[in-house]
């Protein structure tokens, strides 16, 4: 493993020869894997395009993020800038590096969108994101190439498993009442927190989002998709009104809970 990391450092240093020229484009690609991007993008799909696809995409992404966070806790591999002082930390990152969460979620998120909408253009976009988001993380000094490989492999496994069990689980849930659905929505995220080897704010936040998504899926199965706006103008208005309300809650809770302990509990509530 030591040899692989040493080789990885050389790859990172080669990429960083192009800094600062390529800093901005690679930072943009990297930010597309951050929490803020998903906070802006997910509602657009759920509110304006397809609630069914959007809620399932949210559940898939959170499940993928949870497994990635769990793997990082168990492996606890340092990041390049921690491993070798020659590597510049061009973007802040904390925790372990293997597997790469940006790589894993770029594959899972964009592949599921392209497959769900059956669009060649979306597959091209997915391909671009699956290449350049991971490369941005190497360039920025926060991942080894082997971290990307781990992210790709875990991402493929998560995506294939989800797409295989998605419809059978939905069919099974349709036979259950709303009380059963809500009980599962509360139980599953709680178990995910308890299964973690240590109390972790990231896992707590993921579990909070997942609980909300599962509750949303429960109501979707009982009532069907809610009506989405028909015209582009109404879609835009609905989106920005919804985002304004969402951010008011998000920022308000973030300010209210800032610095409070235990941090994982308040992160769970906020998300």
Write a structural description.
- There is one protein chain.
- With 271 residues, this protein is mainly α.
- It has two domains: 25-163, Phosphatidic acid phosphatase type 2/haloperoxidase (Vanadium-containing Chloroperoxidase, domain 1, Up-down Bundle), CATH 1.20.144.10; 176-225 and 252-271, no CATH class.
- Helix content is 77%, strand content 0%.
- The chain is built from twelve helices and no strands.
- It has helices at 2-15, 23-31, 35-48, 51-75, 80-83, 101-117, 120-139, 145-174, 178-195, 201-223, 232-257, 263-270.
- Helix 3 (35-48) runs antiparallel to helix 11 (232-257), helix 4 crosses helix 8 and helix 9 runs antiparallel to helix 10.
- The radius of gyration is 19 Å and the shape is globular.
- It starts with a helix and ends with a helix.
- The mean pLDDT is 89.
Largest sheet: none
Uncertain spans: none
Alpha-beta classification? mainly alpha
Q: Tell me the name of the CATH homologous superfamily of the largest domain.
A: Phosphatidic acid phosphatase type 2/haloperoxidase
Helix content: over 70%
Q: What is the count of DSSP helices, taking H or I runs of 4+ residues? A: 12
CA-based gyration radius = 19 Å
């Amino acid at each position: 493993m030591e040899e692989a990391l040493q080789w990885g450092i050389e790859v990172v240093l080669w990429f960083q020869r192009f800094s600062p020229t390529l800093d901005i484009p690679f930072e943009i690609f990297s930010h597309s894997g951050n929490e803020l991007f998903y906070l802006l993008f997910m509602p657009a799909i759920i509110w304006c395009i397809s609630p069914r696809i959007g809620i399932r995409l949210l559940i898939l992404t959170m499940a993928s993020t949870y497994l990635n966070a769990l793997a990082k806790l168990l492996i606890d591999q340092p990041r390049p800038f921690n491993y070798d002082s020659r590597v510049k930390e061009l973007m802040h990152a904390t925790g372990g590096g293997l597997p790469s969460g940006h790589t894993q979620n770029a594959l899972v998120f964009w592949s599921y969108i392209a497959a769900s909408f059956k669009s060649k253009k979306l597959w091209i976009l997915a391909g671009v994101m699956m290449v350049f988001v991971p490369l941005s993380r190497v360039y920025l000094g926060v991942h080894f190439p082997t971290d990307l490989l781990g992210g790709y492999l875990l991402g493929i496994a998560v995506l294939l498993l989800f797409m295989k069990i998605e419809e059978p689980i939905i069919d099974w849930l349709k036979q259950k009442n709303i009380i059963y659905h809500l009980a599962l929505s509360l139980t599953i995220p709680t178990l995910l927190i308890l299964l973690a080897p240590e109390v972790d704010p990231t896992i707590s936040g993921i579990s909070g989002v997942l609980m909300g998504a599962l509750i949303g899926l429960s109501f979707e199965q009982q009532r069907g998709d809610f009506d989405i706006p028909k015209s582009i103008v109404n879609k835009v208005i609905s989106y920005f009104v919804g985002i304004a309300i969402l951010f008011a809650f998000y920022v308000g809770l973030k300010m209210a809970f800032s610095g409070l302990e235990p941090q994982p509990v308040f992160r769970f509530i906020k998300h």
